[in-house]
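Large ribosomal subunit protein bL35
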Amino acid sequence: MPKLKTRKAAAKRFRATGTGKIVRRKAGKSHLLEHKSSDKKRSMSKTTLVHERDELNVRLMLPYL
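Predicted structure tokens:
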């Protein structure tokens, strides 16, 4: 059976934790930051878990994750 290809765009955006959960970065921290509060910018810097409904799609894009 041939090797499965990895979606490179997804590989740059997601990673797996030690327990096998998938984490992502939060959106909205690239520009237009002047009017956002420090608390909001700080919370957007943290990573968060991928929702369980989306996790299957991410795992299909990343077969060797």
